Amino acid sequence: MQLPSSLLENAVAEFTRLPGIGKKTALRLVLHLLKQDVGDVQHFGETIAKLRRDIKFCQRCHNISDGDICSTCANSMRNQRMICVVENIRDVIAIESTQQYNGTYHVLGGIISPLDGVGPEQLAIGSLVQRIEKEETEELLFALSPNIQGDTTIYYIQKKTAHLSCRITTIARGIAFGGELEYADEMTLARSIANRLPVQQYVK
Amino acid sequence: MLQLRSISLVQFRNYVEQDFSFSGRVTAICGANGAGKTNFLDAIYYLSFTKSYFSRPDSQSVHHGLQGMRIEGNYLLNGEEQKLTCILRETNRKEFALNGEDYKKFSEHIGKFPCVMIAPDDVELVTGSSEERRRFIDTILSQSQPGYLSWLIDYNKILQQRNSLLKAAAEHHLDESLLDTFDEQLSEKGQLLFAARKEFLDTFIPLVNESYKNIAEKDDDIFIRYDSQLTQDQMRELLLTNRQRDLYLQRTGCGIHKDELELLMAGLLFKNLASQGQRKSLLFALKLAEFETLRQKKGLAPILLLDDVFEKLDAQRMHNLLSKVCVKEKAQVFITDTHAERLRQQLDKIGVEYQLIEL
Hints:
The complex is a heterodimer of chains A (204) and B (359).
Chain A lengths: L5 H11 L6 H13 L2 H17 L1 E2 L6 E2 L5 H4 L4 E8 L2 H10 L4 E5 L17 H11 L3 E4 L5 H13 L6 E4 L15 H9 L4 H5 L1
Parallel strand pairs in A: 3-4, 3-5, 5-6
Antiparallel strand pairs in A: 1-2
Helix pairs in contact in A: 1-2
Chain B lengths: L1 E11 L2 E7 L4 E5 L6 H13 L19 E9 L2 E9 L5 E5 L2 E2 L12 E4 L5 H4 L2 H15 L3 H24 L4 H41 L5 E6 L7 H7 L1 H7 L10 E6 L2 E2 H4 L2 H23 L4 E4 L8 H14 L4 E5 L2 H11 L3 E5 L1
Helix pairs in contact in B: 4-5, 4-7, 5-6, 5-9, 10-11
C-alpha cells in the first residue's frame, strides 16, 4: 500500500501492532482520527498514554487496580478467605459479571506450558502460595480453561499447597446451561455423565 | 451389509470424467501400469476416510492441469441407499456430504462406511520401524474404542510439554514438582492407553495368527507379541526410575510411545528372516485381522480394497487368500492386477461370480 505521507504511514504501522488489526483497518482508523478535531485526538492519545503509565496491578491479587490494592481485595464485604485462581484479567471480568462469586481473586498471568516457554516462575504462583500461608485461606477455587495445560497448572499448584489445610475446588465442567443435549459434543457429554450430580444438590 | 453400487469420478487424478457401476460383490480391475488402478481404489478409500490413503495433500488428487475434483459414490447400507459426495473446490476447500448434507466435522464420518485397503507399500508395516505398527494399532483402536483417540492426543500433548521441560531444565534449573505433575498426568493417560492396547491385542494377535495360517497353510513358526515397558512396571515408577536418564537425554525414554508389536519368526526378527512372500502373507494376515475386528465392532463387513495383491505370492497362497476374502468373508471386494488373464483364471478357480473392469 502506497501512502502519501510518512506521518500517516507511521500511525498506520502503530495501529497494525494491535491484535486483530490489519493494514486496511488500521488505515480506516487513522483516517477517521484525521477527520476529528485536533483537541479530541490529543485527548485520545493522552488517555491511552495515561492508562499505561498510571495503571497499577493489585499487589495482592495482580488484578487491575487504581491503587496498591484493588477494590475487590479492599472490600470487607467480600469473603477474604476464599481465592479464585484465574488465568488473566479477562477471566476476572467474566466471573464478576456473573455476580455469583463473593471472594477474592488471584491472577496468574498465564498457564503452565513449557512448550511456549511458560514455566511456574513466569507466573504468579509463588505469591499465591505465600498468600495462602499468610492469609489462612479456607478455599482455593480454580477457574482455569478445561484443557491439558489448565490441568497441569491445577495439579502443580495443588502440589505446592499440599502442606496447607486449604480446601481446593475447581469449577464444574459439563453441559452448558440452556444448551440442547443433542448439540453437546461427545467429550463434554461423557464427562457430564461421569461426574453426574445427585438431584438434591442440582436443584439447590 | 455395506455395498458400493456406483462411483463417479470427475477430475480425480488421471480420470477426467468417468462413471463405474458394480453389479456384484467381487469386482476385478485390470489395466496396464499407469492406467489408474490404484487411483480407482483410492477414490473408494477417499469416500470412507475423507482423504487419500497415500498421505499427500488433497490438491495432488486433482487431475493434472485442471482445478477442483469430485467423487460421488452410491452405497447400499443395510438395505438403504446412501449417497456420499466429496468435492474439492477450485480454492482447495473440501466439502464432504452424506445424502446432500455437508459434514461440519469430517471426523464424524470416519467409521460409518468402513473399508480396509491393502497396497504393496504397506509392507512397511511388517518391515518398517515400530512407529508404523503403533500407528496401525492406534488407527484400529481409534475407530473402535470410544475415548481412545482423545487419550492419545492428550498423552502426546503432555509428552511434548514434558520433553520441553526436560530441555529447558538443561539450561536453567529444574522444577521438580512440575516434572512430578507431568509424570502424574502422563501416567494416568499412559495406563489407560496401555490397558486398551493390551485388551485389544489379546484378541487381535490370535486373529492374525489364524489368518496367517489360512493363507500359508502353516504357521511358519511366527510369533507375535505385544512388547511394552508397562507390562512389568507401572508407568509412574518407570518415569521415576528413568528420571536421571531422561534429564540427561532431554526426552522421555519410557512410556507407551515406545511400545512395539514384536514380529518374530523362528525366534528371530521377522523382517530379517522372512521371504518376500512371507512378508506379504503376514501383511495380509494383519490387515485381515483388522478387517475382522472392524466387522465385529461395526456389525458389518468393511469394503476390501486389494491393490496388486498377486505379486510375490505363490499360487497356493494366492488361492487361499482369494477364497478367504471373496467366498468366506461375504464382503464387497475390489481387486486390481495388471494381467486380465491371471485375474480371470484365479477368480474362476474359486468359483465366485465377478465383474471385470478393464481400464
